[in-house]
Amino acid sequence: MTMRLRHAALAAALALAGPLAGATVLGFDDLGADGAVPLNYGGLDWSAAGWSVFAGEQAPYTAHSGSFRAAAGWGVDDAATEVRFATPTVFDGAWFAGLGGATVRFDLYLGGQWVASSATLDPDATPRFLASGWSGAVDAVRVSSPFHASYVMDDFSFQGAPVPEPQTVLLLAAGLAVLQLALRRRAG
């Protein structure tokens, strides 16, 4: 019987941990107001970034999903678009729309060293996905473009475990403690 409880505990832990892993997509709609992207939005470090968010249709600056999208400021350089991850992760890419000629690409970094660049995308009014083109871990992403204020970015996507809500962690810990107590009682 003890072995059954252990298997049940392992199955419960895996079932609860499953939703905590996978792709994370930051769509900017949860911000709910025009303005600067918060410095810790989505658990990422946007402090070096010159990003702001806005809603409302303004062709060719079309959102991929929802109403909000992010835009880099006028006159910023590529370094001002850097978004940093707390721990190395796999970056998938993001959706872009904007003026033709405002080409964009991702430059990917790990430990301060450049590791890869994506293909280049020339945006238009129809949002298109720009894949990172790199399956290895990165800890920083920059959007490179000659015209930063001439495109918008939406649905910024990366792999990794999103930060779980405190209630989820407490519930998981309490459940595992109860199962461990049951196992000890059966063994003793």
CATH topology of the largest domain: Jelly Rolls
- Major sheet strand order: 1-11-6-9
* Alpha-carbon Rg, integer: 21 Å
Count of individual beta strands: 11
CATH architecture verdict of the largest domain? Sandwich
- Tally of separate helices: 2
Q: Alpha-carbon distance between the termini?
A: 13 Å
Strand content: 25-35%
The helix/strand series, from N terminus to C terminus, equals HEEEEEEEEEEEH
Instruction: Please mark out the parts with pLDDT under 50 across 5 or more consecutive residues, or reply none.
Output: 10-20, 161-166
Short description:
Helix content is 20%, strand content 32%.
Can you describe this structure?
It is a single chain. The chain has two domains: 47 residues; 138 residues, Jelly Rolls. The strands form three sheets. Strands 1-11-6-9 form a four-stranded antiparallel beta sheet, with no helix packed on it. Strands 5-10-7-8 form a four-stranded antiparallel beta sheet, with no helix packed on it. By secondary structure, the chain is α+β, with helices and mostly antiparallel strands. A hairpin with a 2-residue loop joins β7 and β8. The chain has two helices and eleven strands. α1 runs antiparallel to α2.
State the main characteristics:
single chain, 188 residues, alpha+beta, Jelly Rolls, 2 domains, 4-stranded antiparallel β-sheet, 11 strands, 32% strand, elongated
